[in-house]
Amino acid sequence: MNKDLLKLEFPCTIALDIKIKGNFPVIIESGTVIHPKVLIDSSFGPVFIGKKCIIEENCTIKAPNEQGIRINDTCIIEFRSVLESYSIGSGTRVSPGCFLGAGSRVGEDCKIMAKTYIEKDISLPDGTVVYSDGKRRILDISLRVRLKMKGPTEIRTQVRIFPLFQFLSKEFRELCILAIRQGPVPTHIAFVMDGNRRWAKHMNLEPADGHSRGFENMKYILEICYKVGIKVVTIYAFSIENFKRTKHEIDIIMDIGKTQLTQFCSHGDMVDEYGIRLNVLGQKSLLKPDFLELIEKATNMTKSNTRHILIVFVVNKSKDGKLDLEKIDETTLDQHMFTHGCPPLDMLIRTSGVQRLSDFMLWQCHKTTIIKFIDCYWPDFNAWKFLPLILEYQLSSFWGKLRI
């Protein structure tokens, strides 16, 4: 490698917490995934980042003002990343909580999400969408003071406008959770997290952005489940259908999955708070060795936890496997299922409005399992769509006891 230049020739992954510092330009090839908390600091500059790269949470990329950072088209800049003195290409999405330094140049048709701090004297071209940070109703006025707005730039409100309303909404949600905890809740609930790609298409974003948002929403829903008192949560993470997509999209899905698993292993705040034991089931042999290593690390790290269980199904179909039909009965089938030892499935939820189970947990669904098909994409599935389903379960349990 040239000592005066750091160049990553092929799409690759820059691992968690890596620090790249020196007096040399940095060139990162298109399709590269930069994992959370990476520091790239080129005191010489510039830093070139290719198309369709993903810069994940809490990354910091620095370069001298006169050289700057060049981020090519259709990249994704994830939560709370800091980029000083840079330009971003057309179609890039800047996620919430990022910092856009003074003098930055923004390409056409970009989306700047909520709570992004934008320095003064940044010019936004036609087609830019700036989402509100939810702090003040006069956001459009304050932004126009800070920004040189030209053309039909659009300012959208993505979240609740008034902070008081946000506060009351959160408090009301917690109150609802507390009330629901007083009644019977499902012991075991499963999710088919469908609709990430269609959500991204609907939002005019890349499929990778939909998958990333889907993983973030998964953590949000999991926390609600555990707060409500649900002991076992099963999610369908990677289906065999995922492997029929383009190699680029498959790699992105796997990279996002590895990132989430890495955070699961390293941060552990949610794991420790709720005492979660992770169990990954399915045809794991189809996954790459580095992914399998992360799975083993995460399962070993949580194997002593007993309060809650998270089951992740990967590449599973109910038709897989061979059976000797003359030697099996109901008990034999149950004992040889991946989910042997888990409580019966009380509720199965599939988002996106598609009314099929995709060969997921067909055996585990019994006559009392509540199956719900929700007409919204997974990234839009929130507490106000989920908690009424738990209430419906409680009402069905109540009426069931009355009939007895």
From TrEMBL:
Gene3D superfamilies: Decaprenyl diphosphate synthase-like, Hexapeptide repeat proteins. GO terms for molecular function: ditrans,polycis-polyprenyl diphosphate synthase [(2E,6E)-farnesyl diphosphate specific] activity. Keywords: Transferase. InterPro entries: Trimer_LpxA-like_sf, UPP_synth-like, UPP_synth-like_CS, UPP_synth-like_sf. Belongs to the UPP synthase family. GO terms for cellular component: dehydrodolichyl diphosphate synthase complex; endoplasmic reticulum; lipid droplet; membrane. Signal peptide: none annotated. This is Alkyl transferase. GO terms for biological process: polyprenol biosynthetic process.
